[in-house]
Amino acid sequence: MAETESLADWMSNLNEKFTKIPLSQLAIPGSHNAMAYSLDMDSSVLEPKKLKALDKMFSTFLRPIVKKWGTAQEKNISEQLDAGMRYFDLRVAGKPESSDLFFYHGLYTTMTVKEGMTELETWLRQHTKEVVILSFSHFKEMSDDQHTELTSYLKELFKTKLCPKPQVPSLKDCWESGYQFILSYDNRNVDDPVLWPRIEYWWADNSDPKEVISYLNNKKQIGRPEGLFVAGLNLTFDGNDMLLYLTKSLKEKTMPAYLLLLDWVKEQHPGSDKESINIIAGDFVGVNSFAQDIIQLNNADSGS
């Protein structure tokens, strides 16, 4: 794939042999905390616990810090799709003072879930051979009724474009059936033919890129799951880190680490063997060669 080639339609441009294997055997770029580009400074702190407890007294001081460390993406959903992202990590929370649902990461987003999903669906309507994997999880402050309302809304929005479980489709399967969405919904109380269970996410929970790589290599040694799964390249900082690095931000800590992380990516291969990878998710997607490097793995000989 040429460096200059747009990644907006990379799935439709794949070598034909890769369109006939399950999506779980492709290398797919993903967005960790995909909606954490529109955090609301006027909202209360939802996490981490240590800072949530202090929010009532010190909100003016704390919220800018939580925003700097919670902002995990810079590009909006359409820009992320243009940049080749096809997996989206979506965390949803109810807000006591609102009937709407929001995304969150530390703080609530300014954007509602309906606004975000409408933008995504509009983009997919213009790119009919692209397929996305939406992973809804880490729900907060939501009642059973709100879960019912959200899943009903998503089913109504995506309609027949939702791929039913449990067989992971190939791109060719999706194209022939008109599927563009695999919808994973991590809630045991919700069961529906088009709502897939939780997608395993390899999360190192570490702020050191060397430790993240070591963790991912250990997971590979044990062996990948059979279906869709995610290797997370994201660095993790807790409340203590945020207070320790008051003047820093998640971006300042993440971007230099990408040199090491992308070296690791280039050594990987998709496929069905024990050490193959599938989805690789990261922060601040679309600002470096992250997506290009992952998509390129599908064209390497080792992916055949």
From TrEMBL:
One Pfam family it belongs to: PI-PLC-X
Q: Where is the signal peptide?
A: none
Coiled coil regions in record: none
Domain Phosphatidylinositol-specific phospholipase C X span(s) in chain numbering: 17-188
Write down the InterPro entries for this protein, in alphabetical order: PI-PLC_domain, PLC-like_Pdiesterase_TIM-brl, PLCXD1/2/3, PLipase_C_PInositol-sp_X_dom
Q: What is this protein called?
A: Phosphatidylinositol-specific phospholipase C X domain-containing protein
